[in-house]
Every structure is written in C-alpha cells, then in structure tokens.
Write the structure tokens for this entry.
Amino acid sequence: MVGFAEAQSCRRRVLLGYFGERLGEDCGNCDICLNPPERYDATVDAQKALSCVYRTGQRFGIGHVVDVLRGARSERIRELGHARLSTYGIGSGRSAEEWTGLIRQLIHHGYLVQDVARYSVLTLIEAARPLLRGEEHLELARPRLRVKVQQKKGRAKLGDFDYDEVLFERLRAVRRRLADAEGVPPFAIFADAALAEMAAVMPTSEAALLAVSGVGRHKLRRFGSEFLDEIVSFVGR
C-alpha cells in the first residue's frame, strides 16, 4: 500500500505489477500521468541498486539494501559481511528516501520482484540483465521529497495547523484525564488533529469550538467545557 501511495510512475502499472502483469505503456488517466513528475536518466542509479540486490544474495528487503547502498554502520551489516561488498556505500550521496523511491520504481517497472509472502525480499528478474550490462537506458521520475520546515520556537505543525506547543500539551493532559475517567483511549475523546486546531485557533466560546474539525455537538456537550476552560485559562494567563 505504501508503494502504491508513494508511486512516482503510472498507478495502473503499479497495480497490475502487484498481480504479476506488465503494462506496455502508461494509462494516461491517473494522477501521475496527468501531473507527471520531473524525469531524469536513472540508469547508473538503477544499476547500483540492482547490483546491490544481486550482491547481497537476493535475500533482503528494501530497507537492508538501502542501508548497504548508503554505507550504514549497523551491527547486522557487519555480521553479514556486507560492509565488504563492492556496492557498500556507493549510494551514500543520496538519502534513504531517494533510494527507497527508486527501488520501488524498479519494482513497478518490472526489474525487481518484491516477494511479500517472504518478508518482502527483493529478487531480480530477467528484464534487469540488459540494464545491468549497460545495454539499455532507464528514465525514472525524480522523487518528490518532503521538505522539512524550521518552526518558530514554541510553535509546531500538525497537518495544516501551526499551533502552540504548550497549549497543545495542556489540552492533551485534559484529554488524558477525561479518557481515564471514561475508560477509553485518548483518541476516542478527540484526535491529535482536533487538539492541534484548538491550539492554533484558540476558541473561547462553544460556537468557536464547534467550528473545530472533529468537534460535534455530542462531544461539545460532553467534553467541551473542560477544553474551553483550559484554553481560556491559557489565553488569559
């Protein structure tokens, strides 16, 4: 599901590939086809990834292959002797997210098989040989990486809300107290997203609290006063 959701190639290709079928050309109708990402010559990167899968014995999943490519100094890599492989560290210039995305594209394009019934082990298929030998070139989508934004001190971000961290923690404490009293998990009172919105807009009336996503009339009636008291106390400090 993660591979499908984060796909940078035609989603129909991905879906059919999961069931062992190959699509000759992109469907032209999915969101990726209609709004295609930037593409680049990924031949060398693909060769590095495929070679690493081969040299690790085709017995490991994406995470381990990425660790070897990036030269991770884990105990497992040392125990397996993979730090001595020629592919160890050859991809240190790229992030784990970039390598993971590239390997998923190689799966979607039919160069690798991910055996989900056997711990998601990666294995090469015959179509990978010409690419490994340099007999063909491969263009892939350049990953659309998430950008980490530096937040102002005392502020944090959840979803679309830039909220006050101190108030958020105080609201979480209220939620925890109510959840314990009700004998339910905290999210059954309000989700983190609702608390983040409260800590962002700081509603001080029932009407304003009701406008917060996730706050219905039933929960407003049962729990609203507790959260409003905390917000009013915080605002008026």
